[in-house]
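BUG-231 | component: ligand-complex export | severity: low

The export step for iron/sulfur cluster jobs runs without errors, but we want the raw record kept on the ticket for reference. Input record follows.
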Amino acid sequence: MNINAKHIVMFSGGKDSTAMLLRMIEKNRKIDEIIFVDTTKEFPEVYEHIEKVENYISQKITKLRIKFDYWFKDHIKTKGKSKGESGYGWMDFMNRWCTALKRDKTKKYLNKNYERNNIIEYHGINYGEKNRIKNNRNRNIKYPLIEWKMNSKNTLNYCYEKNFKWDGLYDNIKRTSCYLCPLKKIDEIKYIYFNYPDLWKKMKKLDKYSERRFRSDYSLNEIEQKFKSKN
Ligand code: SF4
C-alpha cells in the first residue's frame, strides 16, 4: 500500500456520489477528504442533503465555491472571437465553461493541499455509464460504482433505503446538478418553472446579461411563453 496516497472522494450531492460515499464508508474504504464543488446554483434540496450527509457520516465535506455569476456576466474575455466582451453567458454542449471551472478549482485545491502526495480520486460514475470512462487510462481515478455494478436505479434505491430522499426531487429531475442548466430536458425545465418560481426569477435576472440564447431552440422568454400557453 502506498502510505503517501491520499484518497479523495468527489461528491456532487446527487444519488450516485452519495451511494458511492456511503458504501465506501460501509466497506471501510480509506477516505481522506470529501470534496464538493459548489456552483452556487444547486437545488435547495441538494444543499439540505449535503448537510444531512455530513451529520450522518459525522464528517465535514470540503466545499469549494466557484464565482458563477462573475463568469456568467462580468468576466472580460481575453481571447478568441469575442475578446473584450463580458461574461460567458448560457452554456451549451460545446461551451461548458462552468464544468471547466469546476475541474480547475478542484485541480488547484488538490495541487495546493496534496503537493507531496499521490492522489487517488473516487468518482461516482454508475455502472450504466461505464462507456464514459472507457478511454480513461488514469489509474489514480477509481470508479467504485462500476466495480460494484451499481446502476442508476441501484444507487437511487440504495440512498432511499438509507432515508436520503432529496424531498422527492428525483421523481421529477433525472440529474440534480444546477437548476439553471439549459442542458436539462425540457420537461425538467418546465418542472422548475412551475415549482421553483424564485429560482426561475434568478434565471431571468441572469438571462439579461447573456449574449447567448438560453438554448439554440428557445430563448428563456420563449420557453416561458411555451410553458404558459400549454398550461
Ligand atoms: S450542470 Fe450545467 S450549469 Fe451546472 S456546471 Fe454542469 S453544465 Fe454547468
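Assignee comment: Attached the raw record above. Residues 78 and 84 are 6 Å apart (CA to CA).
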